[in-house]
Sequence to fold (391 residues):
Amino acid sequence: MSVSAPSKAELFTQLDQQAIELPSWAFGNSGTRFRVFGSPGTPRDPFEKISDAAQVHRYTGIAPSVALHIPWDKCDYQALRNHAEDNGIRLGTINSNTFQDEDYKLGSVTHSDDRIRQKAIDHHLDCIEIMGQTGSRDLKIWLADGSNYPGQDDIRGRQDRLADSLSKIYSQLSGNQRLVLEYKFFEPAFYHTDVPDWGTAYAQVAALGERAVVCLDTGHHAPGTNIEFIVMQLLRLGKLGSFDFNSRFYADDDLIVGAADPFQLFRIMYEVIRGGGYGKDSEVAFMLDQCHNIEDKIPGQMRSVLNVQAMTARALLVDRSALATAQQAGDVLLANDILMDAFYTDVRPLIIEWRERHGLPENPVSAFNDSGYLKKIAADRVGGTQAGWGA
Ligand code: RM4
Ligand code: MN
Fold:
């Protein structure tokens, strides 16, 4: 059955179902290989990161959870969970980290040394234990594993060891927990990466079982890649687990999502909706994976979630029944027009009305800026070490 453009009431009901998870690391100082610029009031521990993330939800209404990175966010997890709940949000995905330890120079879960491979597996088992305490559903794995020179290592042997390590990790999940494998085409390894693309991630998770799925980070593809095609294919195969949203101009730039190419974000959201990946019956998780190097972090995160909301609203407006008719008739230009018509719709007044109905400010970013929160944390958070990349 085809679906036509939703009425305003239907659109609002759909927008009510939006939930975007924030990355704890977006609130710390982070950046490029060059200078990491600090800002006053930057969190000094995971609790302060959660307080800042709660501000994003308070003003936008669509960012109810925060992803943690282990060991960056190592702390008393029960206390952190209570702190999140006291602030009206919850803890989300647990991200493992096997890219900052001396032992992992030549690989982690793919390493040929049994001791190092076991150490990397054990780290994931610790993460699963943490998930029990935080109440998290997803264990997200991104690996820096790869090689820099042809012949440096046996790329097939590494793939076999990857499969073996992942199955050991997967076997420890319980209930509705999921293993989410993220791919990235290059960096830090430059010759080959062990999980470079969606096909490899798919092959690895398909071998594990139903609760193993793929994470699509929008910054992890070669320039010109048709990302919405990958979205369609993973949804079609039932293996799209989650998104890491960000924008790129060149490599893995981790900029505000929708900043570089809002049209691409629209196309992605259209395929998500068309493929059943949006709404209460879907398990697809929508997360941000971003770094704010020169802009204020809290409003930077707000801008990101608002960009996702705006492109979701436009994608929801596509008249899918008219589109299907035009496609079936082979009317190339009309079909394209129908899609573009939704993309060109100014949804700002609609979203302002949606916010009004939820008691949210008309302009979340300026309401936050007027609240004095940034001034307050700059004054309060003195002393200690600011959290940063690797904190
Ligand atoms: C990686 C990858 C992961 C994120 C880390 C911080 O490039 O995108 O999702 O956890 O960066
Ligand atoms: Mn990512």
